[in-house]
Amino acid sequence: MAAYAAFGETVQDAGGSRRDSDRASREEEAALLAICAYPAVTEGDRLAKARYLLKVEARGELDLPEHMQALLRSTMWKG
Length: 79
Hints:
Elements: H1 2-12, H2 18-37, H3 43-58, H4 65-74
């Protein structure tokens, strides 16, 4: 969430440089991949993750193969 907020601030900041925008975009992507990869264990965690990712997907932002791979790996049992 913090990465998305930082990205939005950078985009809206008229004085922001292209480099700032690129850095914020990379941070945003890293945060989204981390959420996708997070192995939610409790029901509450699974619901929060699913609700958040459904909102992200509705905006068309969950579109890279890495997102799907991370999501699928996060559901695999590691015993």
